[in-house]
Amino acid sequence: MNPCHQGGPLAGLRIVEFAGIGPGPFAAMLLADMGAELVRLDRPGGSDPYSKTIVSRGRPTVTVDLKDDDDRAGTLALLDRADALIEGFRPGVMERLGLGPEIVLARNPRLVYGRMTGWGQEGPLARSAGHDITYMAVTGALAAIGPAEHPVPPLNLVGDYGGGSLYLVAGILAALLSVGRTGRGQVVDAAICDGAASLMAMFSELASQGRWSDRREANLLDGGAPWYRTYACRDGRHIAIGPLEPQFYALFRRLTGLDSDPDFDRRDDPVMWPTLRRKLETLFAERTRDEWCRLLEGTDACVAPVLSLSEAAGHPHLAARETFVTVGGTVQPAPAPRFSGTPSAIRPPPGPLTLIEAIARWSGEGSFRS
Fold first, then answer.
1. What is the pTM of this model?
2. Which residue in the list 33, 160, 194, 222 is annotated as catalytic?
3. Does the annotation count 317 as an active-site position?
4. What is the pLDDT of residues 9-46, one digit of tens each?
């Protein structure tokens, strides 16, 4: 993989990103990796984007004062030439700046107007502050994660990035396909609370069938099942096991010497789960994490080491796939997903750019606007 290869499946796509935090910039990073040409607009005195070389990779930042008439006019001129925009302000902010959808889409009817918020553009909480943990809390996602004693936020992966960034990217790309058919752009209202709720679809289905309990550590995939959880090893590091299917479970038992213990025949009986967990805790404490990996990893027993972020890049599988790459001396995740004909890439760090230069750069027609 060439991490700085030019092109990508979104080559020719022009996107204006209004600087923000969290899910908006991450969505912009994904689109830039896939070849879109982005210009990031930040306020004077805003945070230095070049100190965040991973999430802000692949796109230049232009300083603009959106309360200044000339800068606002220049921003509108840039949006006239864009295919999409990303903004993550509270509802009403872009409208007060004179950059709301009504004005912008009247000038550029083909524009896809991507809005990234926690609560969405409407509803009782729409103008309230919040963060990933609060959006997850009201959707049922947070209540389902963690030990029985209390919920635990899974970093901000499920809300900000899973329910936010990925849904915004999907929405923008879907709206661009619609532009190709209809010639008309539209607003994409990507709310983290909506996306996090959508991510819970499988568990909503299980609950509707009476197969999911509201109690944590009482279900198949939340650490309740003894064969789908993590265990401490002799060296204090952890191993993750997940032999869900019967044939994988049988292999797991055979390789670990548990096939002769009749208690493990009753794996689907929740009454037995505390007993099975205790036995597995004792078993895994007998060897180090790496010793268990030499026995089990790479087999259909579905076992893997729990690696720290600093360890992950050195894992043989991830190293072979170049899942992590080093660019400018910084180790970072490579673009995902992968494309066979138009590979994604991390672009070289862009040089300084002014608003006038950004407008001039986009003076011609792009492939997404033809």
1. 0.94
2. 160
3. no
4. 999 999 999 999 999 999 999 999 999 999 999 998 87
